[in-house]
Amino acid sequence: MKIYTRMFIVALACMLSIESGYSFFFFGRFKTPPLSETHLTKGRASKSELNPNQISVLVWNIYKGKKDTFKSDFPELATGKDLLIIQETDSDIRVQNVLESVPGFRWDTGISFTYAKKFGSFTGTLIGSSVEPKKVEIIRSKYKEPLVRTHKVITAASYPIKGREEKLLALSIHAINFARKKAFYHQLKQTELMIKSHKGPVIFGGDFNCRSKAKTKYMRNFFKELGFTEVTFRNDSRYRSGMTGRIIDYIYVRDLKVLDSEVYGHLKSSDHMAMTIDVSYL
Length: 282
Hints:
Elements: H1 2-20, E1 30-31, E2 39-43, E3 55-61, H2 70-78, E4 83-90, H3 93-100, E5 106-115, E6 123-129, E7 135-140, E8 153-160, E9 167-174, H4 181-189, H5 192-197, E10 202-207, H6 213-225, E11 229-230, E12 249-254, E13 257-264, E14 274-280
Parallel strand pairs: 3-4, 9-10
Antiparallel strand pairs: 1-5, 2-5, 3-14, 4-6, 5-6, 7-8, 8-9, 10-12, 11-12, 13-14
Helix pairs in contact: 2-3, 4-6
């Protein structure tokens, strides 16, 4: 029994490494910062309000900017966008230099964990905005991922809309991975009160890591009950899990009209495909 248990752990670690790009054989590599230190802000937005007639959004797991073409693809996709809803941002200079090359954006990062041997390091979820947010909140998962024992975070921010009292709420999620269903369910439920109490449109997007049929079904029911619509794509080439073949990147919207949606399946600058939508609030 002990031999089979060890074999299972090794096999699981290998799958985790392949799927997530981490080196899972070095335990103790990651640290969880105090919750009070999980929000990092830099940059300055160029606008004061969103245009209700058209709000352009990019949603993308950028794979920590590891691929060479990221430095050219990201600025091109970011051009003309109002919100950049990002997962797997990173403190690596390659990523930070690319972000700084995109003018007129404020960057709000939710830190999920730091690298134990790298001072000032971090990774997490990010929202870049051409409009200054009115409020930003970082929501850390209660549960940790297996083996690496790290949390995941959701970055949430609200933005003023020209001529409206309501604000747009945007959420960037990197869902907890390879954990029991209840961990995933709980992470989504952590946003429920915020969404229910928000009087205005909502965009909720990112890497939901819903690799099983049960998780996907729960996710869809969760958003349906809260009045969201799942965004569909005419050229749906979104990333699929190498383990189960299921799509794991989604965008959900509430009280918004989807004008256009696209998946940039031809780009090779991440293991996930970039998604863009144009919406209106009328």
